[in-house]
Design goal:
The protein is an alpha/beta fold. The chain is 49% helix and 14% strand.
Length: 316
């Protein structure tokens, strides 16, 4: 389904609609794209009553959301996510942003969409690697909030990879409910919403030190979760059985790209720059079981160094 097809369908139903296309590479998630699209909206005569529809993956969703937040001081928008990451994560929760040369998502807003339309059938054309990357986020929801979801994913991994629609729809719906429930309790990430960052502190650092070229976001989160689970188990928070069940599921999901040659010190530096460092304190999400988390503010560099080593970061 392309924007042009959607716009033609809406016009056929008597709704005035235009398709605005954008490059959806991560490099295009920047202010210049927002400016160009805002110019196109003006040319189309869009006023404050306009409704934007973000049809695409997380890049399109984040840019459209930011455009909606700022065009004429705010117009409404819908999310129609077409990747697994976008369906279970980025389309829900109202975080919208673009990147600056200095880093990802540095200019943005909390601006929830009026509606999110999630259709797992749209994932049929998604490359397997992108699908798998989304599945790491699905596993994350299991680890942070639902042992039942974790076990369902583990038991139906083949059906999920074959995109069996009833199985996939059930799993996507559960993830959406967990994300929406978490966001409703803490829209502006003052506390409880932080649990969604399980695996992300280390994941973001791995992405940053590899300049976003080696791992897809979900893959970096996969490594981040493995390291966080290890750290949680070392602290005696996560049982060794639960850690083994988790790492076994990650292994069965298929190969993560090799960690390669990375400097532990640089990864630690990148963790220090993370947005989850508030007033100098790192809020680190640990698993205290499958389906339960706790947030620690006393995770040491030594613990992080050890966990990174255990996932294969070997350089000094
Ligand atoms: N706002 C949030 O809360 C939040 C959360 C997570 C991620 N994000 C952001 O989301 C972005 C990543 O999103 P993503 O993983 O969806 O990646 P993406 O938007 O880059 O899409 C991945 C690739 O899949 C292609 N694609 C999209 N739908 C397709 C389909 N149905 N069939 C075939 N190909 C398809 C795209 O063209 C692209 O090449 C990042 O910019 C990240 O910062 C935001």
């Amino acid at each position: 389904l392309h924007g042009a097809t959607l716009a033609a369908g809406l016009r056929a139903a008597g709704i005035r609609a235009e398709a605005l296309l954008m490059n959806d590479r991560e490099q295009a998630k920047r202010l210049e794209t927002v400016e160009r699209l805002a110019g196109r909206l003006l040319e189309c005569g869009a006023d404050r009553g306009a409704l934007l529809v973000a049809l695409g993956g997380g890049v399109v969703g984040d840019v459209t959301g930011f455009l909606a937040a700022s065009y004429m001081r705010g117009v409404e928008y819908l999310q129609v996510p077409t990747t697994l990451v976008a369906q279970v994560d980025s389309a829900i929760g109202g975080k919208v942003a673009v990147n600056l040369p200095a880093g990802k998502n540095l200019v943005g807003a909390f601006y929830p969409p009026r509606l999110v339309v999630c259709d797992p059938a749209l994932l049929a054309t998604l490359p397997r690697r992108e699908f798998r990357a989304g599945l790491y986020e699905v596993v994350k929801y299991g680890v942070i909030a639902s042992r039942a979801l974790f076990e369902r994913v583990s038991a139906s991994l083949d059906s999920l990879f074959h995109q069996d629609l009833p199985t996939l729809t059930g799993v996507v719906a559960d993830c959406c409910a967990i994300k929406a429930g978490t966001v409703m309790r803490d829209e502006y990430e003052a506390g409880p919403r932080r649990v969604l960052n399980f695996g992300h502190t280390i994941g973001h650092a791995l992405e940053a030190v590899t300049r976003y070229r080696r791992f897809l976001h979900g893959e970096a989160v996969g490594y981040g979760m493995l390291a966080s689970a290890r750290l949680s188990a070392r602290r005696g928070l996560l049982s060794l059985d639960d850690e083994a069940a988790f790492s076994d599921l990650v292994r069965r999901m298929g190969p993560l790209p090799a960690i390669g040659d990375l400097s532990t010190t640089r990864v630690l530096e990148a963790i220090g720059h993370d947005k989850k460092v508030v007033s100098g304190t790192l809020h680190f999400v640990l698993a205290s079981g499958i389906g339960a988390t706790t947030i620690a503010t006393d995770v040491t560099r030594t613990e992080l160094r050890q966990a990174l080593k255990e996932i294969g970061v070997k350089g000094a």
